[in-house]
Amino acid sequence: MVPIKVIIAEDDSSMRIVLRKILEDIEGVAVTAEVEDGRTLIEKVEEQPPDVVFLDVDMPGMDGLDASREIADLQPKVFIIFATAYPQYTRQAFEVYAFDYLVKPFKPDRIRKTMERIKGLLLERKRVAVTEPSQRPEHQDTTKKKLMVQYRRHKVFVNLADIVLITREARKTVVYTVDKKFKISESLGELEEKLDGSMFIRCHQSFIVNLDMITEIIPWGQKSYLVKLSYIEEDAIATMDKVRLIEERLSTV
To answer: Confidence class of residue 134 from pLDDT cuts 50, 70 and 90?
Structure first.
């Protein structure tokens, strides 16, 4: 199995040593970088995309909460784990989709359990479950409706029924259809306003999914879920409240 790549962001060198030692003692985990501030963390995430980031809340230049928001725009599927001396930021941390929140002094067993959970979830993510419905869904005759997107210098008209997923990757908006992938300039917010709200849902700040394409929803982190989709190997992440909404919407279909 490919090692789980971890970046540690912590301005206290002694705490970095403690975290590195705990993590390197866990089989299948590799610490690929250590940084002292939020801005450098963002640069490292761009240069060497990790699977997991351990970060402090209080860091110079850019704090951990702001850094985690930027990471969501770069690599929204990175597992964010806050490791901090400040227990009062738990709510803010989970608002930016943190996977876990550890309070210093760290307990090695807690970190090991967190990493074991992540190992299991990464294996689940790699389970390919690309399904193709025997009949293309016709949701309120949206097969006749199109979304215009700016792709390179072209205007591309995409059938709404063919859109599976819209997400953010490396600061770009990416539209996945049943057979193509477009990187476009519009933001998720701009596209959300154009889409049919009865057919699409913004299930996370970095993901919009076609309700007709959802095949499976799996627990993912403390307050989030993994959403598997038809036609593509990519998946989405959904918050707990959005999963409830998805269940309500699909139960009426």
So the answer is: very low
CATH number of 4-126: 3.40.50.2300
With tokens 């990187």, the residue in question is: 183
CATH 2.40.50.1020 domain locations along the chain: 142-251
Write the single-letter amino acid at 182: F
The string of pLDDT tens digits covering residues 60-78 is 989 999 999 999 888 888 9
